[in-house]
Amino acid sequence: MPPEADEPVKLNVGKLIPIELENGLRVYLAPVKEYPKFTISVNIELPGYDKESRLAEKKILNKAYSSRLSEKYPNGEIDSITSYYGAMSNANMFGGTIKGMKEDIDPLLEVYVDALFHPIISDAYIIEKQKDQVEKEGKETIKLPLRKKEFSVGKVIDSLLFGSEEKVVEIKNKAIANFKGLTINDVENFKNDRILAYNSLIVVVGDFTEKECKELMMRYFGNWKSGKPYVKDSPLNKKTSIIKRRKIVVVNAPNAVQSDISFRWHLGDAHTYFKDDIKLEVLNEIFGASQLSYLYKNLREDKGLCYFIRSSVGTSAVGGRGSVFTTVRNDQTAYAVENIILEMLRLRNGKVSTSDLKIAKNSLIGSYTRSLNAISPIPYITFAMQKDVYHLPDDYLQSKVDKYYEVSVDDMMEMSQKYIDPFKSVIYIKGKVSELKGTLEKFGDVLYFEENGTRID
User: Where is coiled-coil annotated (predicted)?
Assistant: First the structure.
């Protein structure tokens, strides 16, 4: 008998230390011991950015940032200094990123901070835009013909899942940037009203202690204007599925030799970061997210129906979404649909094996821990930006590995019965209708369409 495996060593990954400065600026430190480089990500929320009414100021300020000239460095020194240190520095209205060697952090931050707070706003560029506006106003406006409404299979699927949405269309005059009378002072005021500490958070990744990090942030960002406290609205929204039984939507591809098959269903209450998000991730791994999944082993390895098949059963802002996608030969379409439904029922009606569960958890733990590295610190930055919005605990990243280990066979049974739904799903197939018609009706009501949206009887 082979020896029993040792208990897994507790992984100390994902540590994120919250720090708050007196001006309201939020900082998160991800300490990485003995790592010679650093990454600093500055993230500025701009409420109403897409609905901005002061478009002229916005355009001029964006141009100023893209020019990479600042008060202290007006002659291209930003690029030359960054290149000299083999680093990266990018300042813009949304913040930016600084990367380099820890020993060079002070000169790099000096450059970045001046670029963020004191970009050179060109009076010549304002005058140029004013002249362009005068020329445009002198030309006759040509009305373009309205575009013909195109067929959208996505809207058909949404209507079957959620019903037709009646949207109240508000007629609004399109905002136009008005550069007349615009001054550098106007643009400066615009910047100072929006680039604020309360709107912002910084993620620092590198070999820093909490004290070192706080001193560094105070030195370079401590005088940042606070502004009014800003709390981002929750992106979560409830969406209710109305579908009662399975529907099939088929779009004709008359020259196709293969059919694209896509299942889609609504989970209901699986909102982003909900309490069972880790369990749902493990379920998806077992179902169809890897080459060791049920779907892959059945349709690819056992029956040779496809080269690729994947599921995506996960959280979303509107309550979660389940989907499966593959491509098979036209004459195997119905058989593939049957086997996908079979695997969904298999998960719902029977317990997964201890071995399958262990493999899925180990795979996810490995992928997760590898993602938490200093070279590409995206998970740290993403979490820091979402922590307050979703009310997540400080140790969320650190405790994630333990949550993977805690998932049980019974959890998978419970999650499958709740979130794997072959009955209230929409199956979308794009393939040769002449070969498919009559083979799919056993799965549910079928709607056939030409590529332009014309119904096929």
Answer: none
